[in-house]
């Protein structure tokens, strides 16, 4: 966790607002494609994930994080299980506690949680996976790629390596409320890009998430508990040969309010080869990246620092 005196910058380029995609309208594919190219980030509305399911999970998450630390640490573990402050295993820290689950279509490898939480998680991840596939299919269509399931099939099979994570950012007493110019910030989760294909985030009504624009400025994402936020991750940047941007993002702690977010990191199977799609390049020379498997990338990721540029070693010289 860093207490920084850096000012939150104001965007210099013509940014107006976070792109909003209505997934019930097939024509939104054009806006989605543009959002992926310009920001690597968009908000999805009119989705089919049930609000009741979301409420159950929200409630269960709040209950879990309210438990005494001694009880939560009984289910501590990395990469799956409970964690507090420490992020990854290379020394990063943040004003955050979390609970990560391995998630695949048939399996939830976590035996300590309550039955209610497990059931809610299974139902939620099933529903979010379906929405993720719909979004990826719309995106593939927007790129003019056939078949429609070119991307969605990477995250929908039995062996996909996805993660589901609950993050809790408690109110932070280190933030000085008397400082009115916004220069006193505490990092909840430091700047990074996600390594998978796409990430799907939902949060309660507390803001804190920021995305980084190409001019380097940070944009605060207004919270919206009824919508989902999608961010392009590293593997999708490679698959599209850099056309879609893996968005750098971070979370700032709040002085008074708790933020609870739930994120589904949609990854491919460990053996999946990741390289620019041949239909997006005219010949091999145009490829910006060396091919890798998800397992290779994942291994290098888990040995890196949060803010590292993890794709750099795979860029063609
Ligand atoms: C960033 C995206 C996901 O939160 C995550 C993170 C993972 C972790 O918290 O264990 C990592 C980070 C994330 C990338 C670099 C490594 C691994 C922390 C870290 C320092 C769960 C993931 O898949 O990669």
From TrEMBL:
Entry GO MF terms: gibberellin 2-beta-dioxygenase activity; metal ion binding
Listed PANTHER family: 2-OXOGLUTARATE (2OG) AND FE(II)-DEPENDENT OXYGENASE SUPERFAMILY PROTEIN-RELATED (PTHR47990)
UniProt EC number: 1.14.11.13
Keyword Metal-binding found: yes
Catalytic activity, reaction form: gibberellin A1 + 2-oxoglutarate + O2 = gibberellin A8 + succinate + CO2
Pathway where it operates: Hormone biosynthesis; Plant hormone biosynthesis; gibberellin biosynthesis
Alphabetical keyword list: Dioxygenase, Iron, Metal-binding, Oxidoreductase
One Gene Ontology term from the biological process aspect of the record: response to light stimulus
Superkingdom of origin: Eukaryota
SUPFAM superfamilies linked to this entry: Clavaminate synthase-like
Family listed: Belongs to the iron/ascorbate-dependent oxidoreductase family. GA2OX subfamily.
EC supergroup of this enzyme: oxidoreductase
Pfam families linked: 2OG-FeII_Oxy, DIOX_N
Protein's UniProt keywords contain Transcription: no
Function description: Catalyzes the 2-beta-hydroxylation of several biologically active gibberellins, leading to the homeostatic regulation of their endogenous level. Catabolism of gibberellins (GAs) plays a central role in plant development. Converts GA9/GA20 to GA51/GA29 and GA4/GA1 to GA34/GA8.
Listed InterPro entries: DIOX_N, IPNS-like_FE2OG_OXY, IPNS-like_sf, Iron_ascorbate_oxido_reductase, Oxoglu/Fe-dep_dioxygenase_dom
Protein name per its UniProtKB record: gibberellin 2beta-dioxygenase
Residue ranges of domain Fe2OG dioxygenase in the record: 159-268
């Amino acid at each position: 966790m860093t207490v920084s005196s850096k000012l939150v910058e104001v965007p210099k380029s013509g940014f107006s607002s976070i792109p909003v995609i209505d997934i019930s309208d097939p024509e939104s594919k054009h806006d989605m494609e543009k959002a992926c190219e310009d920001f690597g980030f968009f908000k999805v509305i009119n989705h089919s994930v049930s609000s009741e399911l979301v409420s159950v999970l929200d409630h269960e998450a709040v209950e879990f994080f309210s438990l005494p630390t001694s009880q939560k640490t009984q289910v501590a573990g990395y990469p799956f299980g409970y964690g507090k402050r420490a992020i990854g295993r290379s020394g990063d820290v943040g004003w955050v506690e979390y609970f990560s689950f391995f998630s695949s279509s048939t399996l939830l490898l976590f035996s300590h949680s309550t039955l209610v939480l497990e059931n809610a998680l299974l139902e939620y991840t099933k529903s979010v996976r379906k929405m993720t596939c719909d979004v990826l299919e719309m995106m593939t269509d927007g790129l003019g790629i056939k078949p429609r399931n070119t991307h969605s099939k990477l995250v929908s099979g039995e062996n996909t390596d996805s993660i589901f994570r609950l993050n809790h950012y408690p109110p932070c007493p280190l933030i000085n409320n008397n400082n009115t110019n916004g220069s006193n910030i505490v990092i909840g989760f430091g700047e990074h890009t996600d390594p998978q294909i796409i990430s799907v985030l939902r949060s309660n009504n507390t803001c804190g998430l920021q995305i980084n624009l190409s001019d380097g400025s940070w944009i605060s994402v207004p919270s919206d508990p009824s919508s989902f936020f999608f961010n392009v991750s590293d593997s999708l940047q490679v698959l599209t040969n850099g056309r879609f941007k893996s968005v750098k993002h971070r979370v700032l702690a709040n002085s008074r309010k708790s933020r609870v977010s739930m994120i589904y990191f949609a990854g491919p199977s460990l053996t999946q080869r990741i390289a620019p799609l041949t239909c997006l390049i005219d010949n091999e020379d145009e490829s910006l990246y060396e091919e890798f498997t998800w397992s290779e990338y994942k291994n290098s990721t888990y040995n890196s620092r949060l803010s590292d540029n993890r794709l750099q070693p795979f860029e063609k010289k």
